[in-house]
Specification:
Blueprint lengths: L2 H6 L13 E4 L4 E4 L2 E2 H7 L2 H10 L5 H13 L5 H9 L6 H12 L12 H25 L14 H10 L5 H14 L6 H11 L4 H12 L7 H12 L5 H10 L18 H17 L3 H14 L2 H5 L6 H11 L7 H20 L26
Antiparallel strand pairs: 1-2, 2-3
Helix pairs in contact: 2-9, 3-18, 4-7, 6-7, 6-11, 7-8, 7-18, 8-9, 9-14, 9-17, 9-18, 10-11, 10-18, 11-18, 12-17, 14-17
Length: 382
């Protein structure tokens, strides 16, 4: 790595791997999963189809899809010891910290946790973790509210099971379709921070559970997975549609606040996922009879589109912006947004982990800029 690249910070522009999982074209606002445009997948694919696609670089046939759906659902249950551990945690614990702890503990109950080289075994572990992360997320949301967890159903797909395990009721199709679309849209996105972390851990020869724990810890940060929760807190602060313009004037035009969910490190055009989620959010708002949050978000985005600052810097709504509205309209607590992100991104993490297995240790150089040639002095002479 050159000093020039290092000085840019954040490894920007540095290629660290060849991948088949996704292409992020930030200039033209395109996202491709293993050859398929995200718009096509979001309109048609089950999340399980995307999982298979990222693992195998092709879509499954009907039999393969059913086998993977059944495997994820049938192995989504977690050991009772994990549920007991969750019950012992403080009820106000951060849901991502809870998920991080629970996934780490799952390794002790997985018979293949220390099999580090067999890719077929790795796919089995990945299927288990895909279902178990969903079960843990739903279980924690119920436990902290004083309710007992609900076991997943073997006949449901992952989106259906999540909605069912949250409420205990027959999953509503509108809610399931919205969750499935979200899972598809967030499943993979280039060499993002959490994916890179999962590959670094895997490259040391460590196990899949450790790599996923590292990815969860990375996703927990507000500059990565936590951004949609911050966007929703901003909408809640605005409160009403008539408050959008004065809020924008006070906080953005005259203040130094950011609009959470607008702007992206990679996209210099519209994030294609945001456009899809806007349509989903609008439809969900209309079907639920609760359009206030969509109207607030759309009004704020309209003000940003007309503002010279945002135009010059090519700042557009990203995936976090409208996903916040959609998830909140589904009555999901704001602090549960990021676990849902992890439920989706396990698809991309696991694909990258499997690809990285037996790969070379990731060991970049650092550009030292500290002092040199200092001489040691005893403590009493410093």
């Amino acid at each position: 790595m050159s000093e020039q690249a290092a000085n840019k910070g954040g490894l920007e522009g540095v290629v660290v791997a060849d991948v088949t999982t996704s292409l992020v074209d930030g200039v033209n606002g395109k996202l491709i999963y293993s050859g398929y445009d995200i718009e096509d997948l979001a309109a048609n694919a089950l999340f399980e189809e995307v999982v298979f696609l990222l693992w195998h670089v092709r879509l499954p046939n009907a039999q393969e899809l059913e086998e993977l759906r059944a495997k994820i659902a049938s192995e989504a249950s977690v050991p009772p010891q994990i549920i007991d551990m969750l019950k012992a945690l403080p009820k106000d614990a951060n849901p991502m910290a809870v998920l991080r702890t629970a996934v780490s503990a799952l390794a002790h109950y997985d018979p293949d946790s220390e099999n580090l080289t067999d890719k077929a075994v790795a796919q089995e572990k990945a299927a288990r973790l895909t279902g178990q992360i969903t079960t843990i997320s739903a279980a924690w949301d119920r436990l902290r509210k004083g309710e007992e967890p609900i076991a997943p159903k073997a006949e449901y797909n992952l989106a259906q099971n999540f909605v069912y395990m949250l409420s205990g009721e027959e999953p509503d199709k509108t809610a399931v379709d919205a969750v499935n679309a979200y899972l598809v849209l967030l499943a993979e996105h280039g060499m993002n921070a959490s994916t890179f972390c999962s590959r670094v851990v895997t490259a040391t020869g460590s196990d899949m559970h450790s790599a996923v724990v590292g990815a969860i810890a990375t996703l927990k940060g507000p500059s990565h997975g936590g951004a949609n929760a911050e966007a929703m807190r901003m909408f809640l602060e605005i409160g009403e549609v008539e408050n959008v313009e004065p809020w924008f004037k006070t906080n953005i035009k005259e203040g130094n606040r950011r609009i959470m969910g607008i702007g992206h490190r990679v996209y210099k055009a519209t994030d294609p996922r945001a456009a899809i989620l806007r349509d989903r959010s609008k439809a969900l708002a209309e079907s639920s009879g609760n359009s206030k949050w969509f109207e607030i978000a759309d009004k704020l985005a309209e003000l940003a589109r007309a503002d010279e600052y945002f135009i010059e810097r090519k700042l557009y709504p990203n995936v976090d912006y409208y996903s916040a509205i959609m998830l909140y309209t589904l009555k999901l607590d704001v602090d549960m947004f990021v676990p849902l992100f992890a439920m989706s991104r396990i698809a991309g993490w696991s694909a990258n982990i499997i690809d990285q297995m037996a790969g070379r240790l990731i060991r970049p150089k650092a550009n030292y800029i500290g002092p040199k040639d200092l001489k040691w002095e005893p403590a009493d002479q410093r």
